Amino acid sequence: MKQIKFPYLKYIVTPPTKKPPQYIYRPVIPVKLFLDKKAVTFDALVDSGADECTFPAWIAKMLGHNVYKGEQKIFSGISGSVLAYLHKTHIALDGIEFASDVYYSHEWDDMPFGLLGQAGFFSHFDIHFNYMEKEILLEYHS
């Protein structure tokens, strides 16, 4: 079983009041998304609350997917609904590669990172979040 450890990344959070900026640490890791010989490296939040893996549509386009040809799904959340399109995409990190169902949407094009969710990412790993140490441990099982 291969183990990979990543540090949490520090993000600035601007409060809605005139208080000084604050910081939050998140389990964001670099992943490579690829299809055939095209690849894009992008950060992704390991998100236990996400059902699916989701990324900006510009990545799908760079990989050669025709975004709008994918199966449609509406994601609903606190900020409203988003229409996304499903495409089989390969994900790689630290020498591990696997195929995953990934949803892409243009409404996420300004997001600083994608989401790695239960289906398609958690299904490949035992995942240990350690907020006190600000690190995440992934144990890959093929």
UniProtKB/TrEMBL annotation:
This is Peptidase A2 domain-containing protein. InterPro entries: Peptidase_aspartic_dom_sf.
